[in-house]
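[audit] Reproducing an earlier prediction to check determinism. Same input, same settings, fresh worker. If the tokens differ from the archived copy the diff job will pick it up downstream; this log only records the rerun itself.
[audit] input (618 residues):
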Amino acid sequence: MNFDKNYFMTAISELKGYTDKKLAKYRRNYRRYCYTPYAALENIKNPSEIGFFQGNPEVPSEEDTTTTPEINVIKSTTDTLTSKIAQSKVRPFFNCVNGSFKDILVVKQAQQYFDLFFDLVNTNKTVSEAFRAACIFDTGIMYVDDENINIRGALPWQVHFRPAEMTYGKLTRCYYEQNDYPVTLLPKKILDENKDALANYEFVTYGLYYDTYHHKKVVYIKEIAYCDIREFNSDLLPFVFLHYNSPILGDSSESIVDMLNSIQLEIDNLMAKISDASQLNPANTFFLPEGSSVKASQISNRIGNVIEYRPSPNMTTSPVTVATPAFINDQYMATVEKLKQTAFEMVGISQLSAMSTKPTGLDSGIALQSMENIESDRFETQLNQVIRAYVDLSKVCIAVFPQDEDILPENKTRRSVKWHDIITESKNMSIQYSGADALSKDPSEKLKQLQMLAQAGVIPTSRIAQFIEIPDLQSGYSLTNNAINAVMTLIEQCINNDVMEVPEFIPFQMLKEEIINTQLSLYSANPERNIDDIEKLNELYALAEEKEQKWIDETNDLNNAANNANNQNQDVPVPAAENVLTQEANMQAAPGGAPEVAQSDLDVAANGAQPGNWNAGV
């Protein structure tokens, strides 16, 4: 079969035929969420003004009353649930399975770079917005842009695919048609090749077709009949889908708007009656007996009706009787409140979350926490989808990004790693996931938790600065980060290039710890395959021990010479290793009676040596 322009045009016609029928539902749901009648989805170039025209066209309004007050439970529940899901910032974890040292190193770099990359493109915001779209339309879609190395949201009515393929668990073709796409945002290559043809256009229909079955990608611009067919070698489409409820059949399911639409309509009807009653019923009624000394013209009827009546014989009356009847029965407002409560309960949101109020009867902190836990269980399915979306995004990025491109922009503080490095090792890599908010968000509380983990031996003390994830400590000027990076570079050069060197400025204790840690990782992964690398690290460890002992001997000699000079009132010799940086460091005495140190060696040891005494803990 010949994959040409005719085949492509037939394919996109088929795909659009499956999903165009959704537009009516999406349009209704969008209007209900925004509470703006006649809001359109088709015009992206000049979209509807949300919030200016309000009301529900299904509930007729009268000319002699104002607009019905808005109680939009659809938007309230959607925004509350989106906010709760957005609090769970997820972090994919990359683990190595039966790998060599190179595999382990690439996996560690993948972890680092994906942390930075997801932060760079603000993936948490993109996933949260996709989840909100799922709550409104039933589906939220994220697009991994292989042209611009980016992750962004895609409007669900612009992405066309086969529902049967989604039912059976794998999409093989997808067409992304972006209407009213600004010409200025087109890829530079397209602009250069079609400069004259695009000169008369400010907006175009920009289509992207992906086919993993024929391994083709098609870039299509309808207005100038531009059709560029390219190779697409990935087995994954660059789209990640989120559903509020996972579809049972096809790609359609029930969203929050679908679920609450009838309740919202009933609330609107009741509120229309209450609003009309409050405006048309008199605020007060004045009863004035005939023949009273008070004339009806003396009473203003601006805030009430004036009614004259003929009293019965022998009836004792006051000159004026004022009555304030209820403008409508209380059951109307009680019904509205009941419908609101039902709407939140159907979605699974508590009164505590929806209105920031404490439910009656929950007085203790433990009871409130239990309430939150019960509520969270209702969203477990949605939360699992969001967590899985981060993993799927990581896999798609690895699969579709250009292999020769750097993962992140070049920077002196990090090594350049290209996508093909991770692709090559991806078979030895597994991606797990976990909530990144397992530790407290408060920096001081997070530091306490990390210190407790270090005391329990779960993490080394020297890694606290890395795990705390405070930008100031994550920068390239962090001494602890630089020390561990330098140590790992030595280990990498030893294994890959047979370099057996230990510079004087390397922290010895940290180097020995990481050598042992790496050996354990290599042995547990694949002892037979990694035996040569383990032996190389044994040699490096012995060299580190030798250098460390030499440094201790020199330090003791200098200290003894200094003590003798003090006893004989002679000038103290200046250690050869001291420099201006050492003088400015204002270092303290080593803890626990350890010998004084030549302070040019910087080594934060895991046994509690202070930053001022880097190698004092040996």
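[audit] rerun output stored. Observation attached for the diff report: Confidence is low (pLDDT under 50) at residues 359-374, 470-477, 576-618.
[audit] end
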